[in-house]
């Protein structure tokens, strides 16, 4: 039977659900709501086939955007069947996480409609209709529907999806011929905000006002922004001694609204003989990682909704599915291995300035079991290792840059101007001053860090011991290449002997503001953790486990760094946006510790040098060195596949001292000021 005929039959079946009451009294409202949403998707698909979207008026686009996201956006989520808390008050507890997950999985088909993948939409509708009929049969027999049967059916459905989903995922990562977003960028009139809606993502004032503001800037300003972005990418290859000429594509990750910059960046990359790969940020639960983005993205319709569904994989995750997923990904990469080998790595634009959001606990959400957490960690490691074989880490690079969104406040234009200045600072002064710090710390055995005021940080970081100080160095002198803006020195610390407490009163990580974040460390590994985001300390621990430990029972320190960009710190203070700064900028505004992999993950053998010609030798730690172990289990544990920076801001820093083997102390920072001779120029923005 033709796809069109199957869609027609599916539509007829969905159309009957709103007028029926056969699924059981408690469940009828749920099935009506989801059926109504799927009918809207089918009608939208039909409209797109009958009327060329290029001819749609702005009002039509706005109406569609409202229709698709109204149920979960803003306050509407409180009464949505996508909300486990709402469902938990109306159905049996066992269904409170399951039914909202199914609805969210149906919502993942929005992008399919915009990209004309109606086959995937049909697969989801057919699964939903099967679930509906099982509830109807149970109600007819006067019984509750069987959760076990539904759970098994869901696992079967997700298993069925894996082959198609894996092929789609790999193609989106490596194939520049998938040009959905590229055509929007290259063909649109950016002065008409209608183009923003063509992606099918949720569009809010942030995207609309960002696009309008960028279009108001002089062309030379936009060019300056794009050049900083693409030059960082190019220089990243040069600095690490990698050959950009063997690459033919670059992955672009950006927020919708920044197309005026992205179009100029594409032109710059073209001069480097690189074609853009522009995937959609993951919406299907099999692909999503909470708090992370991997493609073009719009506004998050509801951050509480994202949080409530962060562990939805728990509803179906098992060893068989993980093995199947790995097999399908390997098969898909093998089919596109030439394209994969040609990928140079990601070029990413991140945003900051969104209003801090207070998360609420939800007792009905899906949660991983201990066994599933272990499985997820193991599988993520295997997937990362497999992907690294097809897109070799030692051959690729990246760059990341960050800009504000209008939600940052009324002074948005000023903040944007200051951010542009920040992202294009002259690196030479920083390079010189940072080298003074590196030369001093290269003589030290360890570093002591202490907080001041309400900050309780008391941490000792053990440093690598140089065998040839004339030719070797511990710290990388990082200016403005892969990690924009300028301003940090960093190293991979020795885990043994790295002990104490890291405490930050407020920090913004992966879209979440943490309050009183505390991480206790013994021999470089996290032993305990807490935050005061929730009344229940257990909820705070769950948040940290998910976002910082990434489901590992413990995690090691992968990086110790000193941020030197006091101009960025001063900007945040001047505008009162310290709690909204993206970590990309925030990490440059004080000493910071990264939990997870080192900065040299998967490319430890690639020797890199500082501008003074010394080789950076502190590239490994006791965890990453396991990669070469003959013990397969140990080798699998060499990487965490995550890296989360936590910055101690200058005003919470009592002091940072390097300590030599003989006990002599070298003061680097005291009371939030640089005190090492030759570095005091960094204090000028702080003292202004």
Please explain how this structure is put together.
The chain is an alpha+beta fold and 688 residues long. The chain has 3 domains: 3-145, no CATH class; 180-390, no CATH class; 425-687, no CATH class. Helix content is 41%, strand content 16%. It has 23 helices and 19 strands. An 8-stranded antiparallel beta sheet has the order 12-11-10-6-5-17-18-19, covered by helices on one side. A hairpin with a 2-residue loop joins strand 18 (665-670) and strand 19 (673-674). Helix 2 (28-50) runs antiparallel to helix 7 (118-140), helix 7 packs antiparallel against helix 8 and helix 17 (412-423) packs antiparallel against helix 20. The longest helix is centred in the N-terminal third of the chain and has 28 residues, at 147-174. The radius of gyration is 26 Å and the shape is globular. The N and C termini lie far apart (73 Å). The relative contact order is 0.09. The mean pLDDT is 93.
Detail the topology: elements first, then pairings.
Elements: H1 3-16, H2 28-50, H3 58-69, H4 84-88, H5 98-107, H6 110-114, H7 118-140, H8 147-174, H9 180-187, H10 205-216, H11 219-239, E1 249-253, H12 259-271, E2 275-277, H13 303-308, H14 319-335, H15 337-341, E3 343-352, H16 370-390, E4 399-404, H17 412-423, H18 427-441, E5 446-451, E6 458-462, E7 472-473, E8 476-478, E9 488-491, E10 494-509, E11 512-522, E12 525-530, H19 537-547, E13 557-563, H20 566-575, H21 583-586, E14 591-596, E15 615-616, H22 632-636, E16 643-647, E17 653-659, E18 665-670, E19 673-674, H23 684-687
Parallel strand pairs: 1-2, 1-3, 3-4, 7-15
Antiparallel strand pairs: 5-6, 5-17, 6-10, 8-9, 9-13, 10-11, 11-12, 13-14, 14-16, 17-18, 18-19
